[in-house]
Amino acid sequence: METTKGPVLHQDDFVRLVDKYQPMLIKICYVYLRDADQARDAVQETFLKAYRALPRFRHECSEKNWLIRIARNTCNDMHRTPWYRFMDRRITPDELPIAHEINSDEGALMCEIMQLSPKLREVVLLYYWQEMGVQQIAELLEITQGSVSNRLRRARAQLKRQLESGHYLD
Q1: Pair (115, 77) in one structural domain
Q2: pLDDT in tens, 25-70
Q3: 3-state DSSP: the chain helix, strand, coil percent, rounded to 5?
Q4: Is 150 exposed, middle or buried (0-12, 13-18, 19+ CB in 10 A)?
């Protein structure tokens, strides 16, 4: 008798994962990498890694969190490459994958969010854009809930200062 460790992967299951999460992952990777082509490459690499690891996926977290974690690690790996350091990372709201969904005020806010440090930008993205709770973010980033709350508080304060000073109008 043959035993398996977890659910058997069917091609339809993997296609469902790609269809369901690819648009979200492209947005997330774009925010990390600030380059559309690099984001698409990161998402492709994310799904390759997920495909290889799916038999070992123990469902201790949601598929969404699992894929975001893989994408985040993939983006971090890409940041370490020499090629990444030579690319221009300045972006405008028009270049964002969601540009058609935002108005000019939201575009200004998005520009300010993109100016936050990576740790602050990450929690803002997950909390507001992906509508994840503090506990989910803490599990995903492998930090405490207090750290997530602290980062959100610092990000809000910094954004408030920037927007009140009219910095986004520069």
Answers
A1: no
A2: 998 888 888 778 888 999 999 999 998 887 787 777 788 888 999 9
A3: 75, 0, 25
A4: middle
Place of tokens 């986004």: 168
In whole angstroms, what is the distance from residue 57 CA to residue 54 CA? 5
Residue 5 lies in a domain: no
Please check whether residue 127 lies inside any domain of the structure: yes
Which pair of structure tokens corresponds to residue 139? 């599990």
Give tens-digit pLDDT for 68-85. Answer: 999 999 998 887 776 555
Report the CATH number that the domain containing residue 102 is assigned in CATH: 1.10.10.10
Identity at 155, one-letter amino acid code: A
Q: How far is CA 167 from CA 65, 108, 145, in A?
A: 34, 10, 30
Three-state DSSP state, 138: helix
CB 89 within 8 A of CB 34: yes
In a domain, 81, yes or no: yes
Which domain does 26 fall in, by range? Answer: 10-90
Q: Give the C-alpha separation, 153 to 2, whole Å.
A: 52
pTM given for the model: 0.63
